[in-house]
Amino acid sequence: MCGIVGLFLKQPKLEPELGAMLSQMLDIMCDRGPDSAGFAVYGAGTPGFVKLTLRGPAGTDFTALGTQLGHPVIARGTHGVLSVPEAEEASVRAALARLAPDVRVVGTGARMELYKEVGLPADVASRFKLETMSGTHAIGHTRMATESAVTTDGAHPFSTGPDQCLVHNGSLSNHAGVRRLLAREGLEVKTENDSEVAAAYLTYRMRGGDTLGEALEHSLGDLDGFYTFVVGTESGFGVLRDPIACKPAVMAETDDYVAFASEYRALAGLPGIETARVFEPEPAKVYFWDRAA
């Protein structure tokens, strides 16, 4: 059992409140996943630059690391965000591997920042100051581990492509076969978690030219098991439940936002919820919103 939350804002007026809204939703889903938590926020970006979200051991001196790399690192606990010109990304990654081999790149993109850790969701959100973050959309996850160890690597979201991330409640039965397919296509799945396989599958489809919506449609035929996915891209937000739809899900839509949660109580505190269109997403139906549309 895990908890999923997500927000896609339609109106800029709410963008400064995105982190505070998601933080409250994540906290309410604590009892569905007390082992670990994480979230991805799509905030402001700089044209021609890419953000690298870094994760290091406790006590990592990100300020000193930024000095060594020649680019400042904004530290948030065990994570830091480094913004570099696109043309310098490869050289910065090489320097990072040489200077700080224990520091990993856990997310990359023009706008996405990704944070996750072991611990109670409220504590994780507070540790990274989620309530202070702004942006256009975000997704979050609270995990109760059932098939793999409780580790930061096993926490959600999973990101396998630029500005792409996925959170998942459920279990895939054919993840081993899909993992082998992805390996042949050059996509490395770094953990034993089946959710990372799902994320990499969507990256594989989008690399081939699919939109997020099209990739989710294809997953209905290629991924077996029971699942609810919430997925983010640079401009998009998607939701999909498997054909059985045994995992709980509820959505709310107003003129200002689209919201997702595993249970309605995580939506109850959102502004305007009393007049929102509240509905249960249908089985095997792709729901997709895109700011670029």
Tell me the number of strands: 16
- Largest sheet descriptor: 7 strands, antiparallel
Strand order of the largest sheet: 7-2-8-1-14-13-15
What proportion of the residues is helical, as a percent range? 10-25%
pLDDT averaged over residues: 94
Protein name: N-methylglutamate synthase subunit A
GO molecular function, one term: transferase activity
Organism: Ancylobacter aquaticus
Domain Glutamine amidotransferase type-2: 2-292
Structure overview:
The protein starts with a strand and ends with a strand. It is α+β, with helices and mostly antiparallel strands. The chain folds into 2 domains: 3-44 and 111-290, Aminohydrolase, N-terminal nucleophile (Ntn) domain (Glutamine Phosphoribosylpyrophosphate, subunit 1, domain 1, 4-Layer Sandwich); 47-110, Alpha-Beta Plaits, CATH 3.30.70. β9 and β10 form a beta hairpin. 25% of the residues lie in helices and 32% in strands. The chain has a 7-stranded antiparallel β-sheet, covered by helices on one side. It has a 5-stranded antiparallel β-sheet with strand order 9-10-11-12-16. The model has no long low-confidence stretch (mean pLDDT 94).
